[in-house]
Design a protein that fits this description.
The structure holds two protein chains of two kinds. Chain A is of the alpha/beta class. Helix content of chain A is 34%, strand content 16%. Chain A is built from six helices and seven strands; from the N terminus they run αββαββαβαβαβα. Chain A has a seven-stranded mixed beta sheet, with helices on both faces. In chain A, β5, α4 and β6 form a beta-alpha-beta unit. The radius of gyration of chain A is 16 Å and the shape is globular. By secondary structure, chain B is α/β, with parallel strands linked by helices. The chains are: A alpha/beta, B alpha/beta. Chains A and B meet through α3 and α4 of A and α4 and α6 of B.
Chain lengths: 235, 251
């Protein structure tokens, strides 16, 4: 795995383990655009919350177990499904399977329909670097660090398949935070736009900040209007 | 062959042990103490307790084995279902990698592959369809376990056979009018497939991860056992089709 994607996985993982709730941007009171961010209190999670801006109110639950009570009234859930680092593969798989399953069951019960699941492009690394790999290619995580997130996508997909939730998976490659945050915000805008969702019940979108043609961004541009804004050093 | 049986104290385990015992040296385990009858019947084989949720214990139990057969299952308890059905597969595969065990047989229900989106709509459903377990706890947690097996087999020289079942019947139930779901098999025919799976030359498997529907010759044609017949040489002895024959009219 290259440095950027490893940094993504480790960046998601850098957190304390104590459940807690943070309030993000926006005003007080329940609005039609309450968004619950579930996952470690990483810089990325904080930036997502901070970037929601006008029309949104963000809440944050570090662990899915503490999220169920915050789902009432929410319109969307953003899932960053990795616990503290270092975690064993078994712990990470538990986070991405059982915890995500329980969170999504709770979302269904609370009638929260829109889900954004942050995953990783590292699950496509097994393909030869000379190939252009888009969202139509089968993930090949093997037993690498990206296996838990691939399993998390599997869980999400079954909820989408049964029509219980609308899920957008953002597979993040090398990215700068501003671009990842922008992708999340654009996804929420699309999911929660007046006139109904444009994304359907299941979408996978590759997101990164680079200009490399290995992972084309055509789908991100078409569905979300996403283009990398920042040409700094991806992390 | 030295064979570790995990979760062998359940419904299917004793039948599997009975089918394998004459040809293999078994290490028969379950999270609970094995029934007294199993201790008696399999006295010349190793027997013990093993919790598949404990990675270090699985590793210890797999030492010296040529194959691992994973029969462990939890159907309804949310935490235990994932711990056993999903993480249990992780522990089995990690042990296989570490110890160089090349043959793993995993098991599960038919809806590891053929969940409601297939079963409600389709016919001639085969085991190589993309898995659609749906969100049923049992189906999804088992399907995730199978995905872990698949992922490991792509990186390591381990051959995984996944046997999927649905309805088991005793031979005494094979009578007209019994009916049932169109994915039925007798216990002894189900057990026989494990003997075949241990005997098959691994080079004859099409890939390092193969899924098989294991059912008798059900007449509906809704699910197919063709692959198990073609690759494993499975030939059910018992005619489950009689369960759908019309009962003789009563005088």
């Amino acid at each position: 795995m290259d440095h950027g994607r490893r940094a993504f996985l480790q960046g998601l993982a850098a957190t304390g383990a104590t459940p807690r709730v943070l309030l993000g941007a926006g005003g007080a009171g329940v609005t039609d655009h309450d968004v619950l961010v579930v996952g470690p209190a990483t810089p990325l999670a904080r930036e997502i919350l901070a970037s929601l801006g006008v029309g949104y109110r963000g809440r944050h639950a570090v662990q899915p177990d503490s999220a169920a009570g915050l789902l009432r009234g929410a319109r969307a859930v953003v899932v960053l499904p990795t616990r503290g680092h270092p975690a064993t593969l078994a712990d990470q798989i538990d986070d991405c399977t059982r915890s995500v399953y329980e969170l999504l069951q709770a979302a269904v019960s609370a009638q929260v329909r829109q889900v954004v699941y942050l995953s990783t492009l590292a699950m496509m690394d097994a393909y030869d670097a000379s190939l252009q790999v888009d969202e139509e290619w089968r993930p090949r995580p093997g037993d690498s660090d990206s296996l838990p997130l691939d399993l998390g996508e599997f869980v999400c997909r079954e909820f989408a398949r049964e029509g219980k939730l609308d899920v957008v998976v953002l597979r993040l490659g090398e990215f700068v935070a501003a671009d990842a945050v922008e992708a999340v915000r654009r996804t929420l805008d699309a999911q929660l736009a007046d006139g109904g969702p444009r994304l359907g019940s299941w979408s996978v979108v590759h997101i990164h900040s680079g200009s490399t043609p290995r992972f084309p961004l055509n789908k991100a541009a078409r569905l979300l209007g996403y283009r990398p804004r920042t040409r700094g050093t991806p992390r | 062959m030295n064979v570790l049986l995990v979760g062998a104290g359940g419904y299917l385990g004793p039948h599997v042990a009975r089918a394998l015992a004459p040809e293999h040296r078994l290490r028969i385990t379950d999270v609970r103490p094995l029934p007294a009858a199993m201790h008696t019947e399999f006295a010349r084989h190793e027997r013990g307790q093993l919790d598949v949720t404990q990675a270090d214990k699985v590793l210890e139990a797999a030492r010296g084995m040529d194959a691992i057969v994973n029969l462990a299952v939890v159907r309804t308890h949310p935490r235990l279902a994932f711990a056993v059905n999903t993480q249990g597969c992780l522990h089995v595969m990690q042990a296989a990698v570490q110890l160089g065990v090349r043959r793993v047989i995993n098991t599960g229900p038919h809806f590891v592959v053929a969940g409601p989106s297939y079963e409600r709509l389709d016919m001639a459903i085969g085991p190589d369809s993309p898995p659609h377990p749906g969100v049923n706890l049992y189906a999804l947690s088992k399907s995730l376990g199978q995905e872990i097996c698949r992922a490991f087999s792509e990186r390591h020289p381990i051959y995984v056979q996944d046997y999927l079942f649905y309805m088991f019947v005793d031979t005494a139930e094979l009578h007209a009018g019994r009916r049932g779901v169109p994915f039925a098999i007798t216990w002894r025919d189900a057990a026989e497939v494990f003997r075949l799976g241990l005997a098959i030359d691994l080079a004859r498997l099409p890939s390092r991860c193969e899924t098989f529907f294991v059912l008798g010759d059900c007449p509906q044609g809704k699910f197919s056992n063709e692959k198990a017949k073609r690759i494993l040489g499975f030939a059910p002895r018992d005619r489950v089709d009689v369960m759908w024959q019309r009962p003789a009219p009563k005088d």
